[in-house]
Amino acid sequence: MKDLLRRWLLTFLCVGGFLIGTSAAASEAPTIKYPVPPPGDYNGDVVEQPIEFPHDIHTKVNKINCLYCHTYGRRSKVAGIPPTSKCMGCHRVIATDKPRIQKLTEYWEKRQSIPWKKVHDVPDFVHFTHERHLKKFIFDNEDLVQNLSVDTVAPVCAACHGDLREMTVARKVKPMTMGWCVACHEANGGPGDCWKCHK
Amino acid sequence: MSGNELNRRGFLKLMGWSAAGAGLAGCDLPSTVTLEQGKETVLSYLSPEEYVIPGIGVWYASTCMQCAAFCGIHGRVREGHALKLEGNPDSPLNRGKLCQMGQAGIQGHYNPDRITQPLLRKDGKLTPIGWDEAWSLIGQKISNAPGERFAWVTGTVSGHQAVLLAAHTEAMGSKNHFAVEVIGPHVGRAVNQDMLGEAMPRLVLDKAKLILSLGADFLGTWVSPTHFATEYAKFRSGSRGMLVQVEPKMTLTGGNADMWVPIRPGTEGVLALAIANVLMKGGAKVPEAAIAAVSAYEPAKAAEVTGVSAERIEKIAALLKEHSPSLVLAGAPVEGHAHGYQAAAAVQLLNIMLGNVGQTIVSAGGFPFPQLAAKSGSTRDLIAFADAAKNQKLDVAFFYGANPVYSAPHFLALPEALQKIPFKVAFAQFPDETAEAADLVIPLASYLEDWGTHVAAYQPEEAGITVQQPLMERMYNDTIGFGDALLKLLKLGKSEQYAAWEDYYAYLRNAVATLPAEYKAGAANDNAFWDQTLQKGVLKVAAAAQELKPQVPEIKLPDVQPNEGYPLYLVPSTQLGLWDGRHANLPWLQEAPDQISKVVWDSWAEIHPATAAKLGIKEDDIIEIASEQGSIKVKAYLFKGVHQDVVAVPMGQGHEAYGRYAKNRGVNVLKILDPVIDAKTRELALYGTRVKLANTGKNEPLVIEGRGNNSQRGRKLVVTISADQFRKTEGA
């Protein structure tokens, strides 16, 4: 049974990978409009996580869409850390020999949440919502929606989070200050009212 | 300056700079305002329910327990935490509204001063112990079954908790259940029972064309204020009803009245009889038993007693006659005297004479489950408990939901009396005065973490049971729900009939699911009915319609005796905020300005400017208010909304314990009450205390939100004109 599941899953991933690959090729079409990134970088700390989660393997190698795991981003103010059940959906069978996956399985079997460390945050008096930003830059972006893949979505996420396709664990690479937010709002036609963010 | 070393001033400066930067259109100033990275843990779900989305709240129905009105609430839960409370639109009591005390419930739940583990008094100090030790100690103490020497001391309890509590008291072989509540229509309930045959009839505010309220602060603190506020809105809309308020100290309701009349405390009954006298002369029929009393008070005589002019009395009577049906209410100032019952009866007499009974006062119907009905607290039980303790009639006392050590006036000598009870157990959330005096403290879950059912004493329409469910997991593992604690106690007492229930949830679920089929319309089965009940938060149970049968007892009011030594009357007023002191540990309610004086975080004394001038008192002076029972020192607030013979101090402050926000703040006015007790009901006469004032010569400014001044300083901010002048100039 387990073998069957594994074979099925691999087939699924291969076919999926092929489809994603083809759409990735299409994504290089110059028609997709991305947000104008505000100037400024930030050299954030390297944060040690309980499991060194490799974003690069998931996105760059396996071409898994950011929104597959951070699925709440399109519906909520937070993008959310995926529930452990989502990790285990694949890792019950994939890469079970790797120490990181064994650690993950250990948390799962003990029914413990993984104590991830927060890397990106804004102060409590800032009302930031992923939902609104994703709507504008992904779901209302017709050209992008037609070519939805990790390689078309990642540049949107990268505006604030940097290109996670090139990172293992997340690191803060943008200033995320008010001036920086405002610069982006001005460059991309975002609202300028104080109360939009400070409710 | 690094991000981590930012102090508040530096932070604000930077905020200013980055705002300026924004103003300079894209000028990208470097900023060091950053948040910590890698410090805070962000936990993900293991395998969440499908409807759970981080960042998006889910609302659950439950019941507010901030006062005995038991409004229905909805609580917003996000990432496993209760964040915000609102009224439950399905609750006929509050119809989606929630008062500030209800809103502040969340601060009780997250309060930093909660008790998180069982505490036992060792060498005079409360010390943490384990649960096994706590229960075995209780088991041991109650196995030497004290029978009648055991007592429960609680606040108002109802629903299935009341059932278990009664079962436990009975299992102990005792009948002692003292339900203590300082605020409430204790005397009024008795009067209603005797005169109408029902303790809590339904009031139809919106059908009344005029409400004459004698001190009933129904918009602020009387019976079910959130419910009455909605009804009042209906009363005022359409053909606008008129509100006349007569009281010794202006309340929130008084502040909304069309006519506000100050009256000498304790003479409200006389005023009611004088109005009846005018009505009688106008042809209204007076019930036989009351004729003598009504005839005795001509308006002129009543004017002398009450301080309300004869013309004013006649005017009120004329208004009542013009506006029919009307509604006459008696509040705490009427009830709070040695003749409180008689005075409240005189007020109810007006309703009977005016034909309001059956119109604006109707039967609430019988409640089909009397065992679930509210056991409303009273001050009579506070006095009875203090007596029992003083006379060494008790060996074991359990406390829950009441703080008698704080509420009891000095004359009851409760702290000393408590020392005569060898074993006192407080089931408490907070280290209040009563928990501090206990030998063992059992830490309770907050009401947002607990199961229960509640039945409000005042039912606005079809009787309802409000259901309380946990909005989130318990914050502290070593706390216990009150229902669970009761079950545990019953099991300790070897009551086998409760062995089947693993916990209170199981008990409650079974009790609700096994209700007779007539209450379960629309539910496919018992499980569906339970789910439906939890979703709604309110369980409607049809009440049998009844008719009110007015009866009038003989009414006899005593003459008011002047008191040379103590010339003023003390009014311990009530706020929709700190209430009887139970909310003094909630910073939102400390910070919320008093509805009338706008004072925050403090006690104050309201004095009429004329009285203050006579005694040489200025605003902010610290004055000493002395009764025969003791004195308090408090800052003066000069205010024309009190009778000249009155000094009013709000209840709620002056805690000696009860956590960081409540302790050592202001004064406890209840302490200096005189031992005056209503002759008929044995309730404490809250408004019966006589005091004298002295200026200490010190002063300290009161903190008043938006402190203003009654004077317009000649600037005509609000232009007024006398009625006579208006008629002359406008020809109206």
What does this structure look like?
The complex is a heterodimer of chains A (199) and B (732). Chain A is mostly helical. Chain A contains ten helices and one strand. The relative contact order of chain B is 0.14. By secondary structure, chain B is an alpha/beta fold. Chain B contains 24 helices and 26 strands. Chain B is 29% helix and 18% strand. Chain B starts with 7 loop residues before the first helix and ends with a helix. In chain B, α11 crosses α12. The N terminus of chain B is likely disordered. Chain B is globular. In chain B, the strands form six sheets. A seven-stranded mixed beta sheet of chain B has the order 6-5-17-16-15-7-8, with helices on both faces. In chain B, α5 links the parallel β7 and β8. Chains A and B meet through β1 and α9 of A and α1 and β1 of B. β1 of chain A pairs antiparallel with β1 of chain B.
What keywords describe this structure?
heterodimer; A: 199 residues; mainly alpha; 10 helices; B: 732 residues; 26 strands; globular; disordered N terminus
- In oligomeric terms, what are we looking at? heterodimer
Distance between termini of chain A?
Answer: 53 Å
Distance separating the two termini of chain B: 72 Å
Helix content of chain B: 25-40%
- What profile does the largest beta sheet of chain B have? 7 strands, mixed
Number of helices of chain A: 10
CA-based gyration radius of chain A: 18 Å
pLDDT averaged residue by residue of chain B: 91
Tell me the major beta sheet of chain A. Answer: none
Q: Give the overall silhouette of chain A.
A: globular
Structural class of chain A: mainly alpha
Low-confidence stretches of chain A: 13-27
Q: Count the strands of chain A?
A: 1
What general outline of chain B do the C-alpha atoms trace? globular
Low-confidence stretches of chain B: 1-6, 8-33
| Number of DSSP strand runs of chain B | 26
Please provide the ordered H/E string of secondary-structure elements of chain A: HHHHHEHHHHH
Whole-angstrom Rg of chain B: 28 Å
